[in-house]
Amino acid sequence: MHHFRILAAMLFFVSLFSPAQQKQITLENIWNGTFRTERMDVLHSMNNGKQYSVLNFERNSRTSSVDVYDYETLSKNKTLVNSKDLGDMQYFLDYDFSDDESKLLLASDIESIYRRSTLGTYYVYDINSGELSKVADYKIQEPTFSPDGSKIAYGYENNLYVKDLASGSLVQITSDGKKNEIINGITDWVYEEEFSFVRAFDWNADGSKIAFIRFDETEVPEFSMDVYGQQLYPDQLVFKYPKAGEKNAEVSLFIYDLESNSTSEVKVGKSYSDFYIPRLQWTNDADILSAQYMNRHQNELDLWMINASNMSSDLALAETDEAYIDVTFNLTFLDDNSFIWTSE
Length: 344
What we know:
Strand content: 35-45%
CATH class of the largest domain: Mainly Beta
């Protein structure tokens, strides 16, 4: 009798689980994302502190949307934009807000350059009017809203540009950009790889000025690499790649004034021979720019405050280490323009 009960129980469990075991995985399951892990893409916390937005992608229709959710309930509050309503743009892959959250910058047709850098086609979407406008008819890098959302600065073919969104007028800030020689406002391979950033320009607090780093990599040794694609023969990619001990790009810091359409070079109160500028960031004061200067050995880091009205500079702090200093994004300016600095 005891053995009969055990056998009956085993048959019961087999009957429960056998249908699930017999279910076949289809090609549709594989390609439509059935077994992909759920995640939240491109999350932004909204200005009200109570909601957040995420990028959602509908795989069946191949459309994307920016949706807003409540932190407290996790329920969906509204959809800000859906690509199915945007005509020619089937879907977008990234987005960003203007500071007042009245506009969205939508990215499509993104192609990688190096680890972090990309080229893409970008659109500005006005949330209130539903109007969509293309930033440029060519692929650009690192488009960034001005603080008031009226303009966008971006990089194109190693030069910097500013577009007025209302009039559509375009101002070219720099003109000396050239592949494998001069880069304006976008980092070279070394900075992208070692300092983890690509956008080497920044708007000041009132949108009247743009600070940017210029990279002169003319004397940096070149490296060539075969790139294999669908074509019969590979393409050869030639780029500037300084190996250990070789010459790095020479960097310099500039401030562009939109009203006067003039550019001034920043000269801090210290002489550097072989150095990096791994971070630049405007403070809450529209005239004060912070810039970090680091020696090539990476064990000395200086934080400078530059006054854009008279181009004077003050050394705010200097940090040294026997080994090396880790460069971070942790510099935070408070309302009174004091700042928080993390250090090891």
